Task: structure prediction
Amino acid sequence: MTVSAYLNKIKKEKGAGYFLLIDPDRLALAEVVNLAGLAAENGVDAILVGSSILINSGFDELIKAVKAAAQIPVIIFPGSAMQISRYADAILFLSLISGRNPDYLIGQQVRSAPIIKHINLEAISTGYMLIKSGNYTSAEYMSNTSPIPCDKPDIAKATALAAQILGMKLVYIEAGSGAEKPVPVNMVRNVANYVDIPIIVGGGIREPEEARKRVEAGASFIVTGNFFENKDNHHRIGEFADAIHSVHKK
Ligand code: 1GP
Result:
């Protein structure tokens, strides 16, 4: 089964899916392996791997280690064309459609497309939208783009619809890793009511309740990263998974 088909199946069977993001720059390999194992055991549907910068080398080794530790799909969530590995199950082929930096709209994609073809990696076309939701984030700085203001749902709706019309398969609404506040529920609802493609929501989600509200508003997939970089929070992975999976079971 392709990862795309797997994601559709999760959405159909569970109503919404839960992705845990592992940033190779923030955790040591042993911690990554431990977290990946816990994620798979506690209801996470897929692991995303990626970083705004990627300072640490050994991307292939890290992906292999995650795959060995967790029997769930490992999907690259790339910060740049340098984050590609033949050992992953798929890659979110992102275009930063909230910004007007041509390098992140199409430049990085031109550089990475031939490599993706060469290694026969499944690429899932994803419209990536940064939302301004508090602090200045790494994604904002690294991409040199202006995020969509969090109180401008119309701009978010039009941007997501453009992604859909361009043929993108997913739209990712992102407050940025470690954002002060997650993307507002109202913005998620506005976008979800306006487009037909599944919506991923991430950035600044630190409570299962925050995840649940965004699924209720129409998100198909929720991402948490930062929160589980702290070992003390590991025992709560299952709570997030339950909150996300329980919304459409009611
Ligand atoms: C970041 O959306 C992801 O790209 C996850 O964000 O690390 O804040 O959970 P957090």
Notes: The pocket of SN-glycerol-1-phosphate is lined by residues 21, 174, 177-179, 202-205, 223-227 (CB under 6 Å).
